[in-house]
Write a structure and sequence with these properties.
The chain is mainly α. It has helices at about 1-10, 20-30, 35-45, 50-65. It has four helices and no strands.
Amino acid sequence: MQHRALSAVAQRRGLRGFSQLVQEALDAYLRDLDAGEIDMLLGLEGILDEQEEQDVRRRIEQARATWRAS
């Protein structure tokens, strides 16, 4: 559903894809965060050790393998 909706909005705006729409949405989301939230999120960088990072990456890849394109 999201893909179809984004494609429709992009087409209406004369865009070939919807990456610009995603960028605009992310920009709006980040603008709405307060400074404390941004600092907290930036503070998360590097908190995983190498094994935890590998585990997270493996789980992400497993999840992606089961995603269905609508």
